[in-house]
Structure formats: C-alpha cells, structure tokens
C-alpha cells in the first residue's frame, strides 16, 4: 500500500535558512505533504565548495528541524566519498519505496529554470514529481520556447494528480516569496550584519558558537 506523497528536498544548505523552510511549509499545506526529507549535497570538487563542512551543514539542518515534525534529514549523500547525481539518489529512493509510491522532489524556481541542464533530468522526472516553490527575482517562464512547451506538457492539473501518479508531473506551487539566499547570508555574516530574520534561532546560535562564515 503506497504511503501519501513523500517529498525530498536537495540542496547545499550552507546554511539552511527561512527561504528553504517557509515556502516548503506552505507547499506542504497546499499539496498535503506529511513528510519532507532533506538530503544535503556533497558538492563536486569542480564546484565552489561550501564554506561550512558537511558535518556543520548537517548539524545546522538538525538544529533547524528539531521540533518541526514535517522535516526529516537523510544524510546519505554526505556519507559517500563522491558527490551523487540527483538522478542516482532518486533512483535509489524509487527502488526503496516501490514503483507505486508517489514521490516528489522539491526545488525553487531558479532550479526549475536550469533543470533541463541537470544530468539525466528526464530520468529524475521519471522517478518523481517536481514540486516547485516560487522564488523572487526569477522569471516564471522557461529560458526558451521549447523548454516552455516541455514544462507545459508536464504540468500537473492539480495537487490531486501528485497523489494519484507515482512520478512525472511538475507542480508550480503558490508559495510565499522570500528574498533570501545562503550566498547573501554568508556575505552578511562576513560583514558582521545581523541575520536573525533570515535563519532559525538555533541555526544562528550554531553559526555564532562555531564562528562560521566569518572571513
Ligand atoms: P546559495 O546562495 O549558496 O546558492 P541557496 O540559498 O540558493 O544557496 P541551496 O541550498 O542551493 O540554497 O538551495 C536548495 C534548494 O532550495 C534549491 O532548489 C533552491 O532553488 C531552493 N531555494 C533556496 N532559497 C530559496 C528561496 N528563498 N525561495 C525558494 N526556494 C529557495
């Protein structure tokens, strides 16, 4: 018997912030998600490395979701020596959860715009739905007409489809716009500016205790 739609949320989370959490809480209410599993990335060597270590990024996520029953953490990508492709992780999750289980992968609008450049993007969509949160400053249409047609072909008519089908739909959620990025937070902390409105209190406490993101 399939469980209700189960959603995964990948990212660097350097650090996790309210722009990650608040839109996803709204998404969960909109589509009836009971569980969101956060999967922090192990960043490939050729990409700019996170400033916080894997252990610190994981600890900040734990601090953020402590007492929040919606979220869980899955640190499988951090445990591997090599970075994982999202397609590989989603295929592993599909095998674990069974063919009938509706699965979702949560991304922001910026990630949707770049999604067609992701490694084996079609295989990702074959494994799960894409649940897209709005993000200020990013266009609502895809970069070209062909990609826009592709998006429209995959759009979910309503949230009900996400529960009725195991994968393959793209849902554009009506989530609150939060102009927050981890890049901006790191910059602010480096400049000694406050970030209390941008990250949960326990995360700010961890950052302060460990002296993170100071140059
Ligand atoms: P950075 O500034 O370091 O690139 P980020 O703030 O974009 O980081 P990531 O960890 O790279 O955060 O993002 C993980 C996922 O969260 C991505 O799919 C991204 O689109 C989404 N996301 C991040 N911030 C927001 C936001 N403010 N609103 C909606 N989605 C967001």
TrEMBL record:
Q: Which UniProt keywords apply?
A: ATP-binding, NAD, Nucleotide-binding, Nucleotidyltransferase, Pyridine nucleotide biosynthesis, Transferase
Which reactions fall under this protein's catalytic activity? nicotinate beta-D-ribonucleotide + ATP + H(+) = deamido-NAD(+) + diphosphate
Any one Pfam family match given in the protein's UniProt record, by short name: CTP_transf_like
- Cytidyltransferase-like domain location is 8-188
| Gene Ontology terms: biological process | NAD+ biosynthetic process
Q: What is its EC number?
A: 2.7.7.18
Pathway(s) the chain acts in = Cofactor biosynthesis; NAD(+) biosynthesis; deamido-NAD(+) from nicotinate D-ribonucleotide: step 1/1
InterPro entries membership:
Cyt_trans-like, NadD/NMNAT, Rossmann-like_a/b/a_fold
Q: Name one GO molecular function term.
A: ATP binding
Q: Source organism's superkingdom?
A: Bacteria
Family designation = Belongs to the NadD family.
Q: Cite the PANTHER family for this sequence.
A: NICOTINATE-NUCLEOTIDE ADENYLYLTRANSFERASE-RELATED (PTHR39321), PHOSPHOPANTETHEINE ADENYLYLTRANSFERASE (PTHR39321:SF3)
The protein's role, per its UniProt record: Catalyzes the reversible adenylation of nicotinate mononucleotide (NaMN) to nicotinic acid adenine dinucleotide (NaAD).
This chain's protein is named: Probable nicotinate-nucleotide adenylyltransferase
Q: Which organism is it from?
A: Atlantibacter subterraneus
**Organism classification:** Bacteria, Pseudomonadati, Pseudomonadota, Gammaproteobacteria, Enterobacterales
Gene assigned in the entry: nadD
